[in-house]
Amino acid sequence: MSLRITELNGPASIQDQGRFGHRHLGVGWQGPMDRLAFESANWLCGNPLPAAAIELGPGALSLEFHQRGFVAYCGPAHQGILARAGGEAPLYAGYRHQVSAGDRLTLRPTGEGLYGYLAIRGGIALPELLASSSCDPALDRESLPFRPLRKGDRLPISPQTAALPTAAALGIRRYRTHLNFLPAPKTDARRLRVRVSSSLSRMGVRLESGPPWPELASQPRPVFPGAIQLPADGQPIILTRGCQTTGGYPVIGYVVQPDLDDLAQALPGCRLTLSPCTLEEALRAGRRFQGYRYLIKRGLYGDGP
């Protein structure tokens, strides 16, 4: 199976689970901004992780399928219309849909989130670099999947032999505006009430926190997705999945990893609360997230894989 992108208005890329273990070489993680939405779309299609899927940011996408198969879209950011010989039908988020050769899918923004994921049964079959097919513009490569998607791109799909999950739909997921962070040593561990600015991307989200934080002495600290940097203007920046591997700004804390999914879907103007937590509380949040993932997958597969 293959598909072709016929229209694209906005950022879109190929993402799998990410490229880990190479930050010392200057290679970032990448991977999906909303990890659970990405995984859910793949699970609906019966794809083992890490299967590559399309991540669509704010904007619209149209594509044409060249073969029969199954697809699933997960995320709050888009609504889909599937055009086929018999007319048009909605493509609902959180459902598995069957498509045929010649069918055309259009995804348009809902204004309720920023990122969504389109998985195709079998997964997108593109080359890997450092064990990942995730797009990373910093790699400075002009070939897929390492560059962003463009109109006219043709994406091959792997054959799939694994069984589809028993269920074909997922429940509605609610996103939170309360995020937890681990304070960095020797910083003021206080609750932050902030607003998401219009300056955001896969690299980071700039926040507006009212009165600026007092200037901190710059101390070299590791940066990775979740790090809260404090630039000279005193307005925090939370680094996200596509962030750089080094940074010169002071770091005041680290958002716990499960909460980065919620941050990814926060629209400009959204008000967030960032609460300091202990290491034990952060680990507990990670266990809850893993338990939630297990329940979603079990709901789809029952006693299967």
Mean pLDDT, all residues: 93
Number of strands: 18
Helix proportion range? 10-25%
Relative strand content:
25-35%
Low-confidence spans:
none
**Rg value:** 20 Å
Summarize the helix and strand pattern as letters. Answer: EEHEEEEEEEEEEEEEEEHEH
Instruction: Output the strand order for the largest sheet.
Output: 12-17-15-16-14-13-18
Give the biggest sheet. 7 strands, mixed, barrel
Number of domains: 2
**Helix count from the secondary structure assignment:** 3
Shape, per Cα inertia axes: globular
Structural class by helix and strand composition: alpha+beta
Through-space gap between termini: 24 Å
Summarize the entry for a quick read.
The protein is an alpha+beta fold and 305 residues long. The chain contains 3 helices and 18 strands. The chain folds into 2 domains: 155 residues, no CATH class; 114 residues, Cyclophilin-like (Cyclophilin, Beta Barrel), CATH 2.40.100.10.
